[in-house]
Amino acid sequence: MDFAISEKMETILGMIREFVDKELIPMEPEFLTNEFRDMEPELEKKRDMVKKMELWAPNHPKEYGGMGLNLMDHALVSEALGRTPIGHYVFGCQAPDAGNIEILNLHGTPEQKDKYLQPLVEGKIRSCFSMTEVEQPGSNPVIMDTTAVKDGDDYIINGHKWYSSSADGAEFAIVMAVTNPDNAKYMQASMIIVPSDTPGFNLVRNIPVMGHAGSGWSSHGEILYQNCRVPQSNLLGPEGGGFVIAQERLGPGRIHHCMRWIGICTRAFDLMVHRANTRMMAPGQPLGSKQIIQAFISESAAEIQAARLMVLQAAWAMETKGHKEARKEVSLIKFYVAGVMQKVIDRALQVHGGLGMTDDTIIAFLFRHERAARIYDGADEVHKASIARRILKEYEGKNIR
Amino acid sequence: MDFAISEKMETILGMIREFVDKELIPMEPEFLTNEFRDMEPELEKKRDMVKKMELWAPNHPKEYGGMGLNLMDHALVSEALGRTPIGHYVFGCQAPDAGNIEILNLHGTPEQKDKYLQPLVEGKIRSCFSMTEVEQPGSNPVIMDTTAVKDGDDYIINGHKWYSSSADGAEFAIVMAVTNPDNAKYMQASMIIVPSDTPGFNLVRNIPVMGHAGSGWSSHGEILYQNCRVPQSNLLGPEGGGFVIAQERLGPGRIHHCMRWIGICTRAFDLMVHRANTRMMAPGQPLGSKQIIQAFISESAAEIQAARLMVLQAAWAMETKGHKEARKEVSLIKFYVAGVMQKVIDRALQVHGGLGMTDDTIIAFLFRHERAARIYDGADEVHKASIARRILKEYEGKNIR
Amino acid sequence: MDFAISEKMETILGMIREFVDKELIPMEPEFLTNEFRDMEPELEKKRDMVKKMELWAPNHPKEYGGMGLNLMDHALVSEALGRTPIGHYVFGCQAPDAGNIEILNLHGTPEQKDKYLQPLVEGKIRSCFSMTEVEQPGSNPVIMDTTAVKDGDDYIINGHKWYSSSADGAEFAIVMAVTNPDNAKYMQASMIIVPSDTPGFNLVRNIPVMGHAGSGWSSHGEILYQNCRVPQSNLLGPEGGGFVIAQERLGPGRIHHCMRWIGICTRAFDLMVHRANTRMMAPGQPLGSKQIIQAFISESAAEIQAARLMVLQAAWAMETKGHKEARKEVSLIKFYVAGVMQKVIDRALQVHGGLGMTDDTIIAFLFRHERAARIYDGADEVHKASIARRILKEYEGKNIR
Amino acid sequence: MDFAISEKMETILGMIREFVDKELIPMEPEFLTNEFRDMEPELEKKRDMVKKMELWAPNHPKEYGGMGLNLMDHALVSEALGRTPIGHYVFGCQAPDAGNIEILNLHGTPEQKDKYLQPLVEGKIRSCFSMTEVEQPGSNPVIMDTTAVKDGDDYIINGHKWYSSSADGAEFAIVMAVTNPDNAKYMQASMIIVPSDTPGFNLVRNIPVMGHAGSGWSSHGEILYQNCRVPQSNLLGPEGGGFVIAQERLGPGRIHHCMRWIGICTRAFDLMVHRANTRMMAPGQPLGSKQIIQAFISESAAEIQAARLMVLQAAWAMETKGHKEARKEVSLIKFYVAGVMQKVIDRALQVHGGLGMTDDTIIAFLFRHERAARIYDGADEVHKASIARRILKEYEGKNIR
């Protein structure tokens, strides 16, 4: 075993960390109080700087203009960018575009790649992923009401989706819809590209989440597809293959998310320790001299370290053993890291006292928005049950004493 | 021991519960998306209904127009009203006015009562309480930078306060300021009434808290007192007696807060159980059929029951043994109930999945704003340390085996 | 509501506490290192003292020589006795005899009362309750392998039981066996009195529990019933009524257990605080000056207070509303109090450091043996699921917002 | 980063695992019910088998007959052996001898090595480490009452130690005693070899721990040193260097302990999953079909994985960066892994129900004895405070936003 990071990556990470500290974190007060839409011109400038530094799209294929980092290396990048909510966006590796890029790269036709993949990697357009439905449990993707029915050379799509993140301003959506209702249950749905200017593509609203509807990339769309007609050539991958592709997409996506969360943890941790050092309870008595605060710090340090190593090990397993073999590891980190993040943010907020509740630091934003981590991409409970069933099966018939 | 509630109170509580359900909860969507300021006319109508039902100002003295309920009975009222964030406001028993009314009633001069107490109880004006300072730990009130210096018949006040809740639109503030710097440390500060139109009373901003600065009653003010001059007749209670009065005020205030939190718990609990019953994971398989969700429900039920009984016992102790004797009980409930509330809200959010993150239910609001409960009126850590020191002292010299 | 304890009870409790401190706790070192069997003569003397003080059998009927305390009052007694593992035994209200006495009192024939109830209350004989089976889940009493088949005027009993606590030296067992396999599932088993000298009553072993098989009252028997023949007049209560009676018995039994656990909590708490006061980390720096230890103390104080009030409220509910109505409360306290106890004992052990692992204090005994509380009389998980199902049902069809 | 284990180590680990399963686990029932002393002849045979397999003393120097594995590789061995309480003993790498061997190897004179190190590595004699004192906090080694005063060519030792593990039957103790009371506080004590047959070496008792005093290697001695005279040539390392050496010894020792705990975790986990698969709640409904049990399994899997990676990373850090640099990592794992172990064992016990309380499985033994892990080698609280102080210092003066 070897826990060392390559020199090349250390260099890249050093550049990223410095950029985050100097260029992005100072933008946070604006991010916290203004509309994302209004920040876009300023963010565009930062993106240009990143491109000039040749750090753009670190995880995306070189042929389309990315850096082509492997899973493990991008995991480290994702950690560094996760320290600020605008990190991934400015470096061109933000969700949901990152996942869509992966799908288009693996399954897109040459035409689809030209039209959608290339400008997406370049950051010229944005996209969204439209799977979750209002009335159906995200945890059970077999139950899906949205349909795509063939009509001539087209599909006609009807359905009600939400949490189509970043739909506001997206050029297109990748929509999951039932195309083959008579297939075996995991083979009924397909992915279809739907340009957002298609008639019948109705962005009902940006869902108000934790007090804000947001805008642009920083929003979660509710979309009503009403007789939305697209050519069958917009089918992405094989018909009925939607779930299989989605599953594929989730693996690396979870690694990226989890490392982003680790980045958030380290940010919250730094703020917590700094506050403990500088907030005086009485002259000469910083908050950090109190043992309960010390316990917060040490427990957070241990949990972050534990969580971080688990994610890196899962990335390694996925690269060396493949998606299927690493499925358990990936499920484990999904709920474990989300849980650690919530605890660390909560402690950081507590250590900041009244200040922690305000938008004068990033912590209150993290507290309320990152709560979603225990829900999206499979709620804690779903992962726990699914991992356990897998483990129970592995042990069946074994003679254990 | 007898855990029964009197018939009279059962009747009152029944009326309140019905009013909350029919008149107030339907206003929540507006509360969640609009400015409080804009809701005021509508809320005024509800207040009139409450007055007609003779349920106005349940905890305030009869002679000023309240119901004069004792601490235990108002605790039960506070629970019922706590189910919605606008409950206490509509019934005329909202913080910080409730506490200010108590202080004015106990310590106000006849002139102060005429001018401030009477219209406050009637709900004609609002007030704020200006104690917490930006640069000093709220947990150590001995360290206070704000000063009130005598000049002729006046005080000249200088200082920087924040978390002066509801300052926006308040008629006056009760300001805590050091008047007697040479006194023993707990006898240095005094309470002084400062009308908000006094020159030098500068409301810098409504602090943005969890993404919103709020307005009117639903806001937290940052106030800069700059050579703010008020007559010495505005002194409230004895000079140097500020901390003693504040301490007195906190006891019953904590009971009210804690029972409001219990109300919040029961609301979140109801929503959680309802969701568990109605959200289908698969046909015929409600979320509530899952054992992890069942554990959420039972653990919440136990913790709410435990917390509720503790608060009622503390109210009883305060009434029968007095403030001083009940100090430990009151500190215990402060941190314990706040902790239970956070857990229950968190579980309710989790059970709602993606919906729980939205403002389509009240839960996301509770999740982010009630987080403050573990901080204001003494952070968890402060209470834990202070209770323990008291207990350790009680055991000193005892022969324990 | 009124949380006061009657003067009469305060007097009784004062006497008991003093007796426990002076007469019983000093016997613990012997209890921890010797066989229970060898302590019996000494314990008999203490029982005589208790009888002389007229505190014998506090919960048992006056007509048989007990004090006839009601549920709430005995709950307080049980708390006071719970401070030491030999408390209930010395006062004649120990499990499993206490439960058997209740059953015999409610369902015994005059002959059964003469023969078994009277000497049991007097402490002249002991008994055991033989329900749990090795191969079947205690949580699902419908699945039971032990049978009692009629043969002439007798029952012939066959089955394999364990956790028949105190079987070693018991005069008789109350055995649960299937008598009516064709009945509805909750009406198949009956309770039958089986004297321990009946041929076919085979005490296989005292089960080694946490390193000790124990002896006498302080043991848990594994019993093999092999063609064990008893007259049908030994049937206790109606045929097929075994589960219903067992259910009845469990309600008050859980109250007693829970209050015993509260007693254990207060004992562990006292030892913890005392240790924190007296163990010096450095000159003038007691362990209790450390904030993490202070947090242990305050959290324990809160949880014990919470748990205690819940049990008393459940006792009150059972007395005023009846067993059925109080079922939820009783299930709640079962798992909640057991959980609190484990946490408190664990903290007390931790505060004692290496000493806490030794048998030089009672804590290590409590740590290992009271772990069973989360298992017997229904494991945590069983109670949580069952309470939740009950609550979910209550909410069905309700319109909740 | 690379998480792969070398082929050589995989082979070794495979042999060890098989040996543990086939030869050692079957001896556990005897271990649980008999005296260790009586098992020694049988264990000696197993040791011979290990020696023949050339797996003896895996962590000890080749020149003395060990395998000379490095820290990381022995960590993996320690995990495999940790699955059974007798694993390390049978493979000749048990505490406290392992630590003493390290000290003797690094600091012993040629004579000391001949006389003590050689037979110790060979398993011909045993030893103990005599540092912890009854009256002084182990967490503050500066406060030590035991003294070694020079008299002629000898030291005369006086003091009261306990938790001198395995003193019963040890050939010698390494005793920590104050030799230089006027030195700076961390330079006052020295390590001195004291043969157990020295007059004045009084083994007062094997301390009864969790109900058992134990015997032989499996015991914890209380030793009174009364004018115990040994030649000054028995000084181990430099005079006054005792703490420094002890500190050195603790680093690798904690790695070994932590990996042993991971082994315990995996054992408890296996038993838990197996039980969940095989215990039927109703026909066709294994315990493992319940979601709460599934949560136990998944949470345990995540925590064990997290803990395991942390220990391996700490081992790597210690090897690549040195003891000092890895101090934080080692402190983190000490409390984190101990905590995970307690949780995993507790869940395993709970899943076993009544069986879990008995000595019919290894779980109850692990539950009660491994509780000590959160205490010895620095209590949780001590590590948490010390890590936090280190972190706080690292952040001092940093500009964090």
From TrEMBL, chains A, B, C, D:
Transmembrane parts of this sequence: none
Cofactor(s) the record lists: FAD
Single GO MF annotation: acyl-CoA dehydrogenase activity
Gene3D superfamilies: Acyl-CoA dehydrogenase/oxidase, N-terminal domain, Butyryl-CoA Dehydrogenase, subunit A, domain 2, Butyryl-CoA Dehydrogenase, subunit A, domain 3
Pfam families in UniProt: Acyl-CoA_dh_1 (PF00441), Acyl-CoA_dh_M (PF02770), Acyl-CoA_dh_N (PF02771)
GO biological process, one term: fatty acid beta-oxidation using acyl-CoA dehydrogenase
Assembly information from the UniProt record: Homotetramer. Homodimer.
Species, as recorded: Desulfatibacillum aliphaticivorans
Protein name, UniProt field: Acyl-CoA dehydrogenase domain protein
Cellular component, GO annotation: cytoplasm
Family: Belongs to the acyl-CoA dehydrogenase family.
